[in-house]
Design a protein that fits this description.
By secondary structure, the chain is of the alpha/beta class. Helices cover 49% and strands 12% of the residues. It comes from Lentzea albida.
């Protein structure tokens, strides 16, 4: 089943297919700008998702780029989808461009593979656990905390409903023991995690790297998301975040390196069942 439409993913796919077709047909940018009356900067903006062509101009570009007839309806549909506004744009004063782009990519992803060293992944957090992370940060105003929690809850809607997101979450045992918000908050968070696993075994796989693991290629990383998309047209995208940096990369070499490291790390985790038992053990120890 295809993932829900996302304006961000639609715009990305449209720009990517236009650029790839131009390169495949060995058509120079100057030929396009001359034929369609665009400046080089304008066409660059089209290929880099900063501009969406009008329907008339897109049809003309499809002719010039020699797209097959059966592809054209898809591309015109992508244009319409790209012009929609995702719900996350309502929070434009709260979320910077990278975060809005990340949420837009999440909205159209088929699967996300997460790694967290010290925290439960955001898609699996309870509201009070999320507040426990944000409220001690003196740089976030209380009203912004409320809105950020609201955004987090909206993002979690991808886990249910039509075409639910598939999730693989790898985390260190430390994430199960760090008492964000205090012992009671952590206990309820871990109980929520258990319910989420037991209620969605087909779509949610949680794997714990135990303290007894002697090595792991992901040690030293903070937060990693690897987003996979339906079909074979769109490549995997990587999101990385530390305390001071945030980065979305489409670079195939970097993404492949981290993907390989992630798959290697999976071999050092507990099995899904043993991971569930480890979470339950941590709950018991909080009693």
């Amino acid at each position: 089943m295809p993932s829900p439409a996302s304006p961000v993913v639609a715009g990305w796919e449209l720009a990517l297919r236009l650029r790839e077709q131009r390169e495949r047909k060995k058509i120079e940018v100057s030929a396009i700008t001359s034929a369609l009356g665009f400046t080089r900067n304008y066409w660059s903006a089209v290929e880099n998702e900063r501009k969406i062509l009008s329907e008339e101009n897109l049809v003309a570009a499809l002719d010039l780029l020699e797209f097959d007839e059966d592809e054209r309806p898809e591309l015109l549909d992508l244009r319409l989808a790209a012009k929609e506004r995702g719900w996350w744009t309502q929070y434009g004063t709260l979320l910077d461009g990278d975060l809005q782009r990340l949420i837009g990519l999440e909205a159209g992803a088929e699967r996300i593979r997460y790694y967290e060293s010290l925290l439960i992944p955001g898609m699996l957090q309870t509201e009070e656990y999320t507040r426990g992370i944000m409220e001690p940060d003196g740089t976030i105003r209380p009203v912004d905390v409320d809105q950020r929690v609201e955004v987090r809850v909206r993002r979690q809607e991808r886990l249910t409903g039509e075409a639910p997101l598939r999730v693989v979450a790898v985390m260190s045992e430390a994430a199960l023991r760090q008492q964000i918000g205090g012992p009671a908050v952590l206990r309820r968070q871990l109980e929520h995690l258990v319910r989420s696993i037991e209620g969605n075994r087909a779509g949610l796989e949680v794997r714990i790297i135990p303290f007894t693991a002697k090595a792991c290629g992901l040690f030293g990383a903070a937060t990693i998301h690897l987003l996979d998309f339906p079909g074979d047209r769109l490549p995997t995208v990587m999101f990385q975040e530390t305390v001071t940096t945030r980065d979305i990369t489409f670079d195939a070499v970097r993404v492949a390196e981290i993907s390989n490291t992630y798959e290697s790390a999976l071999e050092r985790t507990l099995s899904p069942q043993k991971s569930l038992e480890k979470i339950q053990q941590c709950i018991e120890e909080l009693d």
